[in-house]
Write a structure and sequence with these properties.
Layout lengths: L3 H17 L3 H26 L27
Helix pairs in contact: 1-2
Amino acid sequence: MPTAEEYRIKAVDLNARAKLAPNSSLRAECEKLALSYLRLAAQAEKNAQTDIVYEPPTATARPQPQQQQQQQPKRD
């Protein structure tokens, strides 16, 4: 998984390519990609701060499902 710094490097590279682009549509696409990489960098930083550990429940800790009884219609 790339780090935030690696995403930022890609964004800088794409901004440099945008400045050298031969036409405006290619320039715009490079700039959009650069912004996307900056968003990825921000998300990578956020994810790096999160520490989640999955602990599966033990067999004794699982609640048993309760069955509900349905009322039977009264017959005359």
